[in-house]
Amino acid sequence: MTFEQQTAVVVGAARGIGRAVAERLAARGAAVAGYDRDAGALAEAGTAFAKKGLVLECQDVDITDEAAVAAAIERTRAHHSGIHILVNCAGITGKTGIPAHQVEAANFEAVLRINLTGAFLLTKAVVPVMLEQGYGRILHVASISGKDGNAGMLAYSASKAGLIGLVKSAGKDYAETGITINALAPAVILTDMVAAMPAHQVKYMTDKIPMKRTGKLEEAAAMIEWIVSPECSFTTGFCFDLSGGRATY
Ligand SMILES: NC(=O)c1ccc[n+]([C@@H]2O[C@H](COP(=O)([O-])OP(=O)(O)OC[C@H]3O[C@@H](n4cnc5c(N)ncnc54)[C@H](O)[C@@H]3O)[C@@H](O)[C@H]2O)c1
Q1: What b/e sequence results for 9-33 when a residue is b if at least 16 CB atoms lie within 10 Å of its CB, and e otherwise?
Q2: Cα-Cα end-to-end distance for the chain
């Protein structure tokens, strides 16, 4: 697969799934702009890319800030005369391993602000660019918790369910324009995000996977690569599964 002549924005590119996707798209010829609020880790990713002969254009962006998101998208659009792909991998779990009645409102709102409002702001900013081109691929990384609900992860599960709803709605809005908007629902992929969670919470999630293993970064990147390629042209408003058999719908 080649992404020559395409520009991709990968959000949450400093580490984890976002970094793996950014590297894969860059290796396939895309010009890749990586956004993240962790400027230090993003710069390290940029240096690591350069050692492999790849380019990651780093932008320090907090996706909860509407003006910052709009400015970043405009910078990338102007620099490359367009944006073909947006992959949003930014997300936080917030506090986990606690029942619903112990979730603090501030924690709930912080998780929704990044996982859901941030996704909305990115979509809102990039769609006009894609409408002008008559082409675009948007992929938001949701979670199996958004379909099933994970005990001990109320805010996270609610935010990801909201994200799946966002994608279903927006996908239909632009179904006739050449733009597809989809989501991906991974189960556990070993990244810093998972490493930061309590061991019992990770065990709870991993035990639910019929393949009895966690997913690999390469497996996530490979699936995302296809979803945002021109070949994936008759699917929009959909949530793809990446759960080792956990999802039954
Ligand atoms: N790893 C898993 O098992 C798993 C499972 C299901 C879903 N997901 C989802 O996949 C996505 C990527 O997960 P990951 O494991 O790679 O996470 P990660 O924590 O390794 O990386 C997430 C990145 O997002 C960035 N980020 C967070 N808030 C931001 C903001 N407001 N603005 C800009 N950047 C921000 C972080 O700085 C970080 O670099 C997330 O949305 C996560 O919810 C992950």
Answers
A1: bbbbbbbbbbbbbbbbbbbbebbbb
A2: 29
Centroid of ligand 1 to alpha carbon of 89 (angstroms): 5
C-alpha dist (Å) from residue 141 to 26, 50, 65, 176: 19, 26, 19, 23
Say if residue 44 is exposed, middle or buried (CB neighbours under 10 Å; 0-12, 13-18, 19+). Answer: middle
Catalytic status, residue 174: no
- For the segment 170-205, what is each residue's pLDDT rounded down to a tens digit? 999 999 999 999 999 999 999 999 999 999 999 999
Cα dist from 237 to 7, 31, 171, 209, whole Å = 22, 25, 4, 25
CA 119/CA 161 separation, integer angstroms = 12
Pocket test for ligand 1, best of 10, 11, 17 (most atoms within 8 A of CB): 17
Pairwise CA distance, residues 88 & 211, whole Å: 26
Asked if 55 and 26 count as a contact pair (C-beta separation under 8 A), the reply is yes
Going by DSSP bridges, is the β-strand pair 85-88/7-11 parallel, antiparallel, or unpaired?
parallel
Specify the CATH architecture of the domain 7-186+220-233.
3-Layer(aba) Sandwich (3.40)
List the domain boundaries for the chain.
Answer: 7-186+220-233
- The pair of structure tokens assigned to 6 is 């395409």
Task: Output phi, psi for 8, to 5 deg.
Answer: -120, 135
- Per-residue pLDDT at 12: 98
